[in-house]
Design goal:
Bound molecules: ligand C2E, calcium ion
Mean pLDDT: 87
Structural class: alpha+beta
Largest sheet: 8 strands, mixed, barrel
Radius of gyration: 50 Å
CATH topology of the largest domain: TIM Barrel
Strand content: 15-25%
Helix content: 40-55%
CATH superfamily of the largest domain: EAL domain
CATH architecture of the largest domain: Alpha-Beta Barrel
Distance between the termini: 157 Å
Number of domains: 4
CATH class of the largest domain: Alpha Beta
Number of helices: 25
Number of strands: 26
Length: 699
């Protein structure tokens, strides 16, 4: 160390201490660097080399800027040097660069060393590497920050559970500040909602596993209860002794609310707020259990709104929803609190009547429900009149569980709907009717291929001329075991199952075939009317199909009248109109069947490309007895004539009706008074002129 004795000598200090100074200089943990007054490095110690990576010989003669890192701006150094000139010293944190390029923080102090006269001799710089210290300190700072800024509430207690520290989130959730909570135990937050067992299990888990977590109800400072998700951790020292407990929690009020909401949604119908099927199932379990003991009965009313679909379709879903909500309200008000009102979905409601003494009580309630519907419902912008069909089943008479009670009430409801005579209590007859329907449904699938279907023809006769003006073809099904099955029974089944498409095509083909036979025999045949079900219009290619069938049979479209009913029961009226226009322009004639029976078609009447209007049977029945029916019939006939439509009165059964129709200038009549629908052969014999070629008098 060349400069050592020189410096020591020039310093002129107590010479006995020199060896000590030398040792301190050499062994110091602090790096020491000495420069001359022009800041050229004269000496450095071992710690300097250890920290910077430079050997003494590498830096002697250089300036300290060899260590500069660019981390400080020029002003920083300017201020540093100004301080040294003024005060003779500077200290602070500075980032420097090691020989290997690494930048590191150091704690630096620089002193100017002066002689007795105060003349500047040297500069002495001492510094410490702060790298490790820094990372330890920043870790602590980080921990502190995490603690205070954490989104979760944190509470640290000692082994006695006295609260030592809490963070901001703790205060935000509980309302207690650190000052208020400090020194107290977490019992401060107890809600009283959990029993002793709960806390015992918590401590057991803490003892065994060192941690516990779960949901817990606590109480805020303002008294409000709230649910939190809490996890408690035990802290131990190196020897394994418990030193602290740390509780971290999250307020889960909101999550709980969503959970409750979900639970609600799973059990209640969102439209009406009524219990849904799942909840009904649960509730009924308890109810039937109770019934079994008390010997009381239970009534299940299955309520189905009639024609609800057409309300939805014609007035919009908002109107439909409004009706359903009002229906729910009315039902709730109509029954006592101990009964259950539930919505199954769609337009189906269930009312469960509890504690019935007599079976009749169920029927009485059902009648009251029917009366509820006498008042109109508020639609979106008009009043809507609704009716409902109600089926009733009783516990224990018709079943022991909700499933079978509902099925039987449902069957009774269908019966009520088809009978139209008010609420129906389930009975075995209904069950067998249902079984018959199931069987017909199955058998109908094979009716066409087994050749069980036939067409009969009913003549339509001119009221003035008395001549055959047309005929309507009507389906007949003779089942080998069940015998004749009326179309009123199997057509709805065919419509429900979609079989109507195949059956309808068969009927049209058969009518054409028969027509072909008569034409080939050169008989004078009027057009044949064929019935089309609304359901058939659901096939987008209906018009093409019909044209094909007629063409293949060698017939002309003008020989066929297509009868459609006023109430299609279908949604897409536009599509129906389009198909009818296509058929009409292909040459078919279109008749509106059962006119007057339906509800809304008057508006469409102008748009429909029709040729013939068939007055519904129901008008005829009352034509001669009810002046209102007569007035209506008269109006329909006049309207039809105004629109240049042909009018056919259907269901004419008496001479008086015939006479009245003549007076009203109705053109054509069809009905039992004239003739029943009959097989082709009979019609041929009775109505179709013998072929001209075969008629002797003509030649
Ligand atoms: P609809 O089209 O209104 O047919 C007229 C019904 O009235 C026929 O009943 C006919 O037998 C009956 N009828 C005729 N004259 C009188 C009368 O003076 N008094 C009474 N009370 N009834 C009379 P049917 O043959 O039982 O057919 C019932 C319904 O079945 C038909 O009503 C029609 O909607 C449907 N239907 C029958 N054949 C077919 C078919 O080929 N296709 C389709 N889609 N439906 C058919
Ligand atoms: Ca018809
Ligand atoms: Ca009819």
């Amino acid at each position: 160390m060349s400069g050592y004795s020189e410096m020591a000598g020039r310093a002129g200090s107590d010479e006995d201490l020199w060896p000590l100074y030398a040792r301190i200089y050499r062994d110091s943990q602090e790096a020491i660097m000495i420069t001359d007054r022009h800041a050229h490095i004269i000496q450095v110690n071992a710690s300097f080399s250890r920290i910077t990576g430079y050997e003494e010989r590498e830096v002697v003669g250089l300036t300290p800027s060899v260590l500069k890192s660019d981390c400080q701006p020029p002003e920083f150094y300017a201020r540093m040097w100004a301080a040294i000139h003024l005060d003779g010293k500077w200290k602070g944190e500075i980032w420097n660069r090691r020989k290997n390029g690494e930048v590191y923080p150091q704690w630096l102090s620089i002193s100017a060393v002066k002689d007795e006269e105060g003349a500047l001799q040297y500069y002495m710089a001492m510094f410490l590497d702060l790298t490790e210290y820094k990372s330890a300190a920043s870790k602590l700072r980080l921990h502190a920050q995490v603690f205070s800024h954490a989104g979760e509430g944190i509470m640290i207690t000692d082994t006695e559970l006295r609260i030592l520290s809490v963070n901001r989130a703790f205060t935000a959730v509980t309302g207690y500040t650190e000052a208020e909570a400090g020194g107290r135990t977490p019992a401060l937050l107890r809600s009283g909602r959990h029993g002793r067992d709960f806390y015992a299990r918590m401590w057991e888990s803490l003892r065994e596993h060192g941690r516990w977590q779960g949901e817990i109800w606590n109480r805020r400072k303002d008294g409000e209860l709230y649910p939190e998700f809490l996890s408690i951790t035990t802290l131990r020292d190196e020897k394994g002794n418990v030193t602290n407990y740390i509780g971290m929690f999250k307020d889960i009020t909101e999550r709980k609310q969503t959970e409750d909401k979900l639970k609600y949604l799973a059990h209640y119908d969102s439209l009406t707020g009524l219990p849904n099927r799942a909840l009904l199932q649960d509730m009924l379990q308890d109810v039937t259990d109770g019934c079994g003991r008390s010997g009381e009965r239970l009534g299940v009313l299955f309520i189905d709104l009639d024609r609800f679909k057409s309300v939805n379709d014609s007035m919009g879903h908002d109107a439909g929803d409004k009706v359903l909500r009002q229906m729910g309200e009315r039902l709730k008000r109509a029954v006592r609190a101990e009964h259950i009102v539930s919505r199954l979905g769609g337009d189906e409601f269930i009312v469960v009547l509890r504690g019935l003494k007599r079976a009749d009580e169920a029927l009485e309630t059902a009648r009251r429900v029917t009366e509820l519907l006498e008042r109109p419902f508020d639609g979106a912008d008009n009043e809507i009149y609704m009716t409902a069909s109600i089926g009733i089943s009783l516990y224990p008479d018709h079943g022991h569980d909700l499933e079978s009670l509902m099925r039987h009430a449902d069957l009774a409801m269908y019966e009520a709907k088809s009978q139209g005579t008010g609420p129906q209590v389930f009975n075995e007859g209904i069950s067998s009717a249902f079984l018959r329907k199931l069987r017909l449904e199955r058998e109908l699938r094979f009716a066409v291929e087994r050749g069980e279907l036939r067409l009969v023809y009913q003549p339509q006769v001119g009221l003035e001329s008395g001549r055959l003006e047309g005929m309507e073809s009507l389906l007949r099904w003779r089942h080998p075991e069940l015998g004749m099955i009326p179309p009123s029974e199997f057509i709805p089944i065919a419509e429900e199952t979609g079989l109507i498409r195949e059956i309808g095509e068969w009927a049209l083909g058969e009518a054409c075939r028969q027509l072909g036979v008569w034409v080939r025999e050169a008989r004078e045949v009027p057009a044949i009317a064929v019935n089309l079900s609304g359901r058939q219009f659901m096939a987008p290619d209906l018009a093409d199909t019909i044209r094909d069938i007629v063409r293949k049979a060698g017939c002309e479209p003008r020989q066929i009248v297509l009868e459609i009913t006023e109430s299609f029961g279908i949604v897409d009226m536009e599509a129906v109109i389009a198909a009818l226009r296509e058929l009409k322009s292909a040459g078919f004639r279109i008749a509106i069947d059962d006119f007057g029976k339906g509800y809304s078609a008057l508006g469409y009447l102008k748009q429909l490309p029709i040729d013939i209007l068939k007055i519904d049977k129901s008008f005829l029945t009352e034509l001669t007895t009810d002046p209102k029916s007569e007035a209506l019939t008269r109006a329909i006939i006049q309207m039809a004539q105004g629109m240049a439509l042909r009018v056919i009165a259907e269901g004419v059964e008496t001479h008086a009706q015939m006479a009245r129709l003549r007076e009203l200038r109705c053109e054509i009549a069809q009905g039992y008074y004239i003739d029943r629908p009959m097989p082709a052969g009979e019609l041929e014999a009775g109505y179709l002129k013998a072929p001209r070629a075969a008629s002797g008098e003509r030649s």
